[in-house]
Amino acid sequence: MTDILARAEAGERLSPEETATLISLEDGPACRALYEAAYRVKLRHVGNAVYLRGLIEYSNICAKNYLYCGIRRGNGRIRRFELTIDEILAAAQLASEYGYGSVVLQGGERGDARAVGLIERAVGRIKAAFPALGITLSCGEQSLAVYERWRRAGADRYLLRIESFSRALFERIHPADSVFDERLKALKDLRTAGFQVGTGVMIGLPGQTPPDLAADIAFFRDIDADMIGMGPWLPQHDAPLHDDTPETPDKAARRFRLALNMIAVTRLVLRDVNIASTTALQTLRPADGRELGLLAGANVIMPNVGEVEHRGDYQLYDGKPDLDENARSIRIALERSVAGIGEHIAYNVPGTPRHYLERISRRSGE
Ligand code: 5AD
Fold it and tell me: Which of 70, 112, 267, 315 is close enough to 297 for a disulfide, judged by CB 3.0 to 4.6 Å?
């Protein structure tokens, strides 16, 4: 293990088996050594500044019925909402005032002309009002033409998780409405449209194995991802995907460790990308989950900047924290907790992934 870790830290390419070995580490000292190595690689390649993205959950209306997700079309037990452009703009303004440097517009997956037009106009208005603010979209699978429209409107980045690079597992959790090859094509189209591209997976899905997760990381590398967002899979009470056995604290703790291991190994393999310490991680350990994510190699946090009013209807999974916390108190807590682990927040910068900047500069130098 020590040898594998040393080679990974030095930037050597690991075999799938070696990658899976690191991902499956369980014992305390071994895991600590993994996180420390990943942290050193993070310091070397991206530093210890945390970039923030103000998260705007603009709508829970969704045309898809993915098995794991709380806002799936088939869930009749939530109130559906969609923010107006002015409400989206107000949230972006808050992010800008707080010095967050960038925003993420995230919502249910819809391809109808109205929804596409709403995003396009919202992006255009944000860009016009706050030209320095980075804009990320997380609006699911769309056609190349739609991606191009949103890019032209001023969006810089796009998050589209592959959820799992195991075709069998992907098909099991997306039995209708989504096709593995189309997801791959969408990720390619995002690049063609000129976005900084982010992807990621859920960790600890029923039936997922360490070799599956090792293949996920190889996939991130192969598509040259700029950003990674990953978190533990969490059961959702209104969603049909469940484990065979009931959820226990022990299972949750194991999934949390697996998620930290994935962040660390992803940092060791991908080096200079942005990696989010996600809300799902915080959900499993509200007191320090996100901070442990940063210490295992992540460098991005996405604090919510939306109104509290709609939080209850945007529960992709159970136990989502900050249901009653307004953007201001979230910000104060975050500032304190980041300082508490000896890192600092990079305010008022878009936080463009180093990996993307390097690729662009290589290209223009050719
Ligand atoms: N547990 C963990 N993550 C989830 N997501 C959706 N539902 C769940 C769940 N039950 C994640 C997906 C999606 C992102 C927006 O939220 O990975 O890409």
Answer: 267
Q: What percent of the chain has pLDDT over 90?
A: 90
Q: Thinking of the domain 17-365, which architecture would CATH place it in?
A: Alpha-Beta Barrel (3.20)
Section 9-23 average pLDDT: 98
Asked if 247 and 199 touch (Cβ cutoff 8 Å), the reply is no
Give the confidence band of 363 by pLDDT, cuts at 50, 70, 90.
confident
Q: Is the pLDDT of residue 125 over 70?
A: yes
Joined together, the tokens standing for residue 336 give: 């304190």
| Distances in whole angstroms, Cα of residue 291 to Cα of each of 209, 326, 342 | 26, 20, 10
Q: Which of 185, 138, 163 is nearest to 230 (CA)?
A: 163
Residue 279's CB is within 10 A of a number of other CB atoms, namely 22
Using most ligand atoms within 8 A of CB, pick from 55, 56, 69 the residue to mutate for ligand 1: 69
In the prediction, which pLDDT does 366 show? 61
Q: Which residues line ligand 1 (CB under 6 A)?
A: 68-69, 161, 163, 202, 231, 233-234, 236, 280, 316-317
CA 75 to ligand 1 centroid distance, Å = 15
pLDDT in tens, 294-312: 999 999 999 999 888 999 9
DSSP 8-state symbol, 324: T
**Residue of 171, 92, 165 whose CA lies nearest to 132:** 92
